[in-house]
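Q: Structure tokens for this one, please.
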Amino acid sequence: MRGVNADTRTTTSTALGRLAVPAGILAAVAGAFAYVGTVDPNEPGHYPVCPLLRHTGLYCPGCGGLRSAHAFVHGDLGTALHDNALAVVAYFGFALVWTVWVIRAARGRPLRIDLGTAPMWTLGTVVLVFTVVRNLPFGGWLHP
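A: Here is the predicted structure, written as tokens:
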């Protein structure tokens, strides 16, 4: 009977150990979102201005990301999408990948993300098109 309890403790501690890294990543991301949700990026002086926007007047793919995160934290999905739609997609993408990671870690299986070249080129193309369109006159609806 004594051996069964030791095996149960070992299995439990091993499972908790496998979940430590995903839990730490979630804590860091939650902390970052909590900070951005508390310190409003819409008020000047709290965060640095995007260097590309400052020097060229062009929006990078990340411009509006902090305002988007702030609106997202406050439950305003419409404003979050307006400020940076690509960032909102990334928030949900992170949540999906993190959930799969936790499930696989709990089962003792490693997380393997092998996208291959076609999905990576597609992702790069989406980011490039988003960046170009938001800087064209008809892409004003994508401005943060």
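A few notes: Residues 2-38 form the longest helix (37 residues). Residues 84 and 122 are 19 Å apart (CA to CA).
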